[in-house]
Design goal:
The chain has about 160 residues and is α/β, with parallel strands linked by helices. The longest helix has 12 residues.
Length: about 160
């Protein structure tokens, strides 16, 4: 069952690309929006890193779009302690009245929830994919993400593997 639209931060896009599972977003959502700061982080600054080509291709295919956040003051207000990508992700979702964001970082997740947004992360996307019938070995994927430097607590890992 496809959901409407979601706004994503950079790390979930990168993580899904590392796992070669970015297309899960395409099958789960009608559209994925990313703010300019996320595009810059993944595609421009990360041109040689995992995710750059995949995100560019998703934009070319039209199921992912880059939008500019209008309320720069709100973004600036969130940037302590959040990154510009995290702050823009939250503000873009609020500006476009989109109830759900994809964010992995704990402080950004907490801020998004305080601001009334539903939050899902990379592992949550994988679980949704599994619920839709996509064969995913969660233990293997978690280990791959950890090897790539993604911090996943043992508590969360155990919860997900149950």
């Amino acid at each position: 069952m496809r959901k409407e639209t979601i706004v994503s931060n950079a790390s979930p896009l990168i993580g899904l690309c590392i796992l070669r599972k970015l297309d899960l977003l395409k099958s789960l959502y009608n559209e994925v929006l990313i703010p300019q700061a996320v595009y810059r982080e993944v595609v421009v600054d990360g041109a040689e890193d995992p995710g750059a080509e995949e995100v560019k291709r998703a934009i070319e295919e039209g199921w992912m779009r880059v939008l500019t956040v209008k309320d720069k003051v709100a973004v600036t207000a969130l940037m302590d302690p959040l990154s510009d990508g995290e702050a823009e992700t939250i503000i873009l979702a609020l500006e476009k009245d989109i109830p759900q964001v994809i964010i992995d970082e704990k402080a950004a997740r907490k801020k998004a929830e305080i601001m009334g947004l539903e939050v899902i992360g990379t592992l949550g996307i994988l679980l949704l994919g599994m619920l839709e019938g996509v064969p995913i070995d969660m233990k293997k994927e978690i280990n791959r993400l950890r090897k790539e430097g993604f911090r996943i607590s043992n508590e969360l890992c155990n919860k997900i593997l149950k």
